[in-house]
Amino acid sequence: MSTVEGFSSIAQCFASDMDNETLIFRKFDELGIHNLLYLQCEMMELEARLKDLDRDAAKDPSLSGVFRWWEALVKEVARGKDCRPEVKQRMDLIHDLRRVTKKEYHEALVLQSQVASLRRPEKRVLDVCRYMMTHHFGDGSVFNKLDGKAAGFLDDEKDLVTLKPAAETDALSQFLRQHWVQSVPKAAESFPSVGRFEERIIAKAVNATTILVAAVFLIGSMIGFYFVKHEVTKLVMIAVFTIAFATSIGLITTARRVEIFASTAAYAAVLVVFVSSDLARSASSTCEACIRPTGPVG
């Protein structure tokens, strides 16, 4: 069992993951949206006040120069008690706009956008974190390491984000993470059911598989076309190889749809060129055989 308890124990367990996939926290979407809605209402109020001041200024010709000339506005405000109330209201509104617009509303928008772009944790990692949040005894009894509201911060999966998600999210990488041979280091003896592996090993395995698949599709297709002589069979082989190639890209990479279309079209073009040149040679040989004399010409 860990030598520390409470929050220190949780921090120690989560930090033990060398890939930092266990850095999972709540993002409080509802509270963030509440904050933006309130700030937005405050901005709308400032907008309405500004329009009211503009309408009032349009009715008073003596204020037109002050509101069109920044230096005149500053000079008027510098008069202190002698400053006209309309000018003082305008300057106060300008300061409120700076505070709310730059320091609060827009920064909140940018931060909320960044939080919204964070990815959710994988179920595999989330299950491990939930397991680490509890003590497991030999008699099968279990109790939480944290009490109060903190004990259930991993319950709402939709409101969780991971600070360092896995670099590759393709189907092959996900499959290897689920079935890779895992080890239980001595540092994790308090969690005998938690296996560990290094993400870099998964990345190397995926890279090696990608290279092997690419070689098979290129070299294998050429060897197949070399031994197959029937034209219709070659066309069927082009279709099969192209479909298999597109499927492999979708499974072992995170390519976008446009990238899958482009790479598949390029691969199909290579196959067509190879088969076309072979068909041209076959047709040329057939024509030469047709025109070759078969007997004496008298």
Task: Describe what you observe in this structure.
This protein is mostly helical. The chain has 3 domains: 6-27 and 119-197, no CATH class; 29-116, no CATH class; 201-291, no CATH class. Helices cover 64% and strands 4% of the residues. A hairpin with a 5-residue loop joins strand 2 and strand 3 (142-144). The radius of gyration is 35 Å and the shape is flat. The protein starts with 5 loop residues before the first helix and ends in a 7-residue tail after the last helix. Pfam families: DUF6594. The chain crosses the membrane at residues 205-228, 234-253, 260-280. Residues 11-272 form the DUF6594 domain. It comes from Canariomyces notabilis.
**Strand order across the biggest sheet?**
1-4
Low-confidence stretches: none
Helix share of residues? 55-70%
Largest sheet: 2 strands, antiparallel
Rg result:
35 Å
From the N-terminal CA to the C-terminal CA, the straight-line distance is: 105 Å
Structural class given helices, strands, pairing?
mainly alpha
Sketch the topology as an H/E string, one letter per element.
HEHHHHHEEEHHHH
- In terms of DSSP E residues, the strand content is under 5%
Number of separate helices: 10
Query: Mean pLDDT, rounded to whole units?
Result: 79
Number of domains: 3
Shape annotation: flat
DSSP summary, beta strand count: 4
